[in-house]
Every structure is written in structure tokens, then in C-alpha cells.
Amino acid sequence: MTLRTSHTGLNVTDLDRSLAFYRDVLGFTLLAEGKEDGRRYAFLGDGGDRPVLTLWQQARGPYDGGRAGLHHLAYTVDSVDRVRAYETALRAAGVEFAHDGVVAHREGSASGGIFFHDPDGTRLEISVPHGAEDAPAPHGSAPTCGFF
Fold first, then answer.
1. Are 22 and 118 within 8 A, CB to CB?
2. Contact of 46 with 28, CB cutoff 8 Å
3. Is the dihedral of CA 55, 127, 117, 4 positive or negative?
């Protein structure tokens, strides 16, 4: 038996705000939404008919990177130009980045990307497996995705 990720579920404080971010800025498609008071949620897809991300409005406070649990969500695209297109859209939406522009995953790595936070502070990464050879590495030999 091989385990594969089915979808990722995130607790959010404001479903409308998070839905706008993940749908309108990152491009996920809304598959289903529950609007019942006290049980609001959204199932988001990546162009197919199965959910890849679910948002649950049940958090009472923002993401806390100092607690056990989710560290960050990492998404991959096929080119560094696509990473830069996401960077442009995110900057237009007022998102703050952990690093300035595309950075390498570590010193000398061909992989790299952008690192930022969603409206509740959840850490996110959009990266490519190659194409970031000339990008700086913010932490020397430590993995960039581990410390932001």
C-alpha cells in the first residue's frame, strides 16, 4: 500500500477572506461550499473535480508556527517564470514575503521559489525543481523552506 496526499485541510478564522485569497489570488477553483452557521467550509480544486485543499472556518486565532502541527504548505509549478507570475499576483494583493523574490532552497541548489503567508499567517511556498540556480539562498546550507 502506498499513501498519497488526498487533500490538505486548513482551519481559518474568516472563510470569505481565505476563500478570496486561495481562489482569486492563487487560482484554486471552488468545488463546494457549506454556508450553514457554525459549519462553514469550502472545498477547493486545482482544475479537476477532486478537492486538494479544504478550508474550515473554525479557528479562533491566527496560525502559530511555534506549535506542533502544520509547518507550511508547498506547491510546485513547472517554471521559474510561473513562480514570478504568482509573485506578481501576490504582491498586487498586498501579501508580504518572507524573502525578497525567488530564493534557492539552499546554497547551490537549482530548486527554489517564493515564501509567504496566507491571511491567517499559514506559511506557503511556491517553487520549481530547477531554474533557480542564480537565486540567493537566505540561510546558507540550511533549507530555506524550514526557516521562514
1. yes
2. yes
3. positive
9: left (phi over 0), alpha (psi -120 to 50) or beta: beta
Place of cell 506557503: 124
**Distance in angstroms (rounded) separating the CA atoms of residues 144 and 101:** 13
Residue-wise DSSP of 84-120: HHHHHHHHHTT--BSSSS-EESSTT-S-EEEEEE-TT
Distance from C-alpha of 34 to C-alpha of 40, rounded to nearest angstrom: 5
Q: What is the pLDDT of residues 31-74, one digit of tens each?
A: 999 999 889 999 999 998 999 999 999 999 999 988 989 999 99
- Taking alpha carbons only, the member of 133, 135, 138, 128 closest to residue 74 is 128
- Residues with a catalytic annotation lie at 125
Beta-bridge partner residues of 56: 11, 41
pLDDT digits (tens, 9 = 90+) for 108-124: 899 999 999 999 999 99
Q: What is the DSSP string of 36-78?
A: ETTEEEEEEESSSSS-SEEEEE--SS---TTSSS---EEEE-S
